[in-house]
Amino acid sequence: MFARSYGSSAQPVWTPPQSRVLTTAPYTWSSVQATAGARHPQQVPVADVDTPLKPEGSRPVRLPLTQKLLVCAGLIALLLLASLPVSDCMLLLNDFNFMFWIGEGLPVTVILSLLAAVFVYFITTSTVQDVDMWKRHNIATLVSTFSIFLGAILVLTSLYLYYRAEYTVSSLMYNCQGSAVTKDVRRNYLGLLALRMTPECSQKGSIEECEGYSNVLAQIAAPEDVAYLKALEGDYHCSGFCTAQANASLIETSLSASSERFPHIFLAKGSSDLQLQRLAHNHRDISLPPALFSKAAYKTSCDGSAARSLQFLAIGISQVWWWMSIVLISLSAFVGVGEWLSASKLI
Known about the structure:
Elements: H1 29-39, H2 67-93, H3 96-101, H4 105-126, H5 136-174, H6 183-196, H7 199-202, H8 213-219, H9 223-236, H10 248-261, H11 272-282, H12 302-346
């Protein structure tokens, strides 16, 4: 071998080549490591040298779908679905007009029903310890069952709320003087109005300052009607309840003028009553009685304001609940069909 330093005087030493033995045995990782260890004894041996360099196969990654995760996800979903109807029920409970005509029975029933559905889900999922419960078929059945349960609650309550509010709105707008729904309130209002129209009481700022106010209250069977009429005037800035009628001469004048200007509108003689009602409704502010609890001159009738409030609030909420129930029932059907199709492919 030659010397490692350049310019050295040492002569190269020739060494005979070592004999090599050819074997037919294949090289292995263990033999390679043993040979390397023999040539370099100071090298640290590698642990577990018989382990292959690459794994033969890998297991697919699975999501950690545990019982706790499923219960929490279901509770969050149910609470989000129930939050909108519960908030609507709180709006209805805080509206004095709705509480007076329809009452608190429906909103309280909806809140209790939704809370019961959440409680039943929690009991059903937390008490089951069987591992087979959390398979795809059982999870789909659970989602479908509670979706259709919430949908059934909303569809029944929306129908009841819609027809109850629609009947009250129709009574207030089209049959306020003769309806069984409004007759008691109208009778109590007329008693208060008679006191308000007296010369001594008309100069007062409110009917509560009049001398005969306590006697009128003693004759009223339902004191909550007086509180309701006071709330109507204060919140809706209206006056009168089922008593505002337009001046007959003004109606006849308007009717004759309209018939001369638009003769094609009045097709028959029997439509005159309907035209009188429409014109009376349009000119209600002409003959509105004075306000009971203030000196303000309002231009809106309280029966019309109450009807519009019920129409926008109660009927609007019933329509929202109806469409929510349709979506939940459709979701239940979609989950059932999807689970059936996936199960049929596995057969």
